[in-house]
Design brief:
This protein has helices at residues 63-73, 81-97, 105-119, 121-131, 137-149, and strands spanning 11-18, 24-31, 37-43, 50-52, 58-60, 102-104. The chain is an alpha+beta fold and 150 residues long. 13% of the residues are buried. Helix content is 45%, strand content 21%. α1 (63-73) crosses α4, α3 runs antiparallel to α4 and α4 (121-131) runs antiparallel to α5.
Length: 150
């Protein structure tokens, strides 16, 4: 790391700690030549992810969309915000572990439904009814029967 004051390459880390956002590391450094101190931040670089929608449009991945869908599905259910955050983190980890630059939205939907099925059956059915676009009561009942048979 070059010193921002004298441009020398000889700097060393004096102190490291997590930054306020807990997603980066704050490092205090000191230049071996001019002895001045400065702060750097180190952050993990993520692969930009594009979601391919049903109509083949592409848009940037947005965690907030998954969060809002899960929150709506879990509305008035005995599920804590921490549980929701944890499940969204797990979903996001599964998505990024695929290490693909593009992912179809239906794969994200299936991952969300799989996680919700294990968390709360009512939240699962709520999400599935919107995601799978149930057209009538019969398709809704078919999904409920599948859930009850497991």
């Amino acid at each position: 790391m070059k010193c921002p004051f004298c441009g020398n390459d000889n700097t060393r880390v004096i102190d490291s700690r997590p930054a306020d956002d807990n997603n980066s590391i704050r490092r205090r450094r000191q230049c071996d030549d001019c002895k001045r101190r400065f702060t750097t931040y180190e952050k993990v670089e993520t692969i930009p992810l594009v979601v391919i929608k049903k109509d083949n449009n592409r848009e940037p991945y947005d965690r907030a969309k998954i969060e809002s869908g899960v929150f709506r599905s879990c509305h008035k259910r005995p599920i804590s915000v921490d549980q929701i955050t944890k499940i969204v983190d797990e979903i996001e980890t599964m998505i990024f572990n695929r290490e693909e630059k593009e992912i179809p939205s239906y794969i994200i939907g299936e991952i969300v439904m799989d996680k919700l099925k294990n968390l709360d059956p009512v939240a699962y059915v709520r999400f599935a009814s919107v995601y799978r676009e149930f057209k009538d009561v019969n398709t809704f009942m078919d999904e409920l029967k599948k859930l009850l048979d497991n």
